[in-house]
Amino acid sequence: MTQWSGYLGLILQGALVTIELTLMGSVLALVMAFLAGMGRVSRFFIVRAIATTYIEFFRGTSIFVQLFWAYFVLPFAGLSLTPLQ
After folding, report:
1. pLDDT digits (tens, 9 = 90+) for 27-53
2. How far does CA 81 lie from the centroid of its chain?
3. Do residues 40 and 52 touch, judged by C-beta distance below 8 A?
4. Strand, coil or helix: 64
5. Residue 1, SS3?
6. For residue 54, is pLDDT > 70?
7. Which of 13, 19, 41, 42 is a Cys-bridge partner for 47, taking CB atoms 3.0 to 4.6 Å apart?
8. Cβ-based neighbours of 17, under 8 Å, separated by 6 or more
9. Gap between the Cα atoms of 12 and 8, Å rounded
């Protein structure tokens, strides 16, 4: 049987990182959704068109395609993705 006490610190550290990422992602998603929703009902055509394009792009593509694109295409644009440390 494995001694869990040796791994408890690492498990708690990983749980803390998971909670932090969940909270930050939720806040970012809330802000982006609010801005897109407000843009969608804007009286200005260009704002409405940009918001509609943004919404339909993310609704029309699978999360797998979006992650694949982010991982392989964004580094070509100079945005490097680094792992969590």
Report:
1. 999 999 999 999 999 999 999 999 999
2. 13
3. yes
4. helix
5. coil
6. yes
7. 42
8. 84
9. 6
Under a CB-based contact definition with an 8 Å cutoff, are residues 41 and 52 in contact?
A: no
And the tokens for 8? 């408890």
Report the distance separating Cα 85 and Cα 75, nearest Å: 19
Q: Which residue has the tokens 């006490």?
A: 5
Q: What is the dihedral of CA 12, 14, 15, 17, to 10 degrees?
A: 130
Through-space distance between the first and last CA atoms of the chain, rounded to whole angstroms:
30
Give alpha helix (H) positions in 41-62.
Answer: 45-60
What percent of the chain has pLDDT above 70? 95
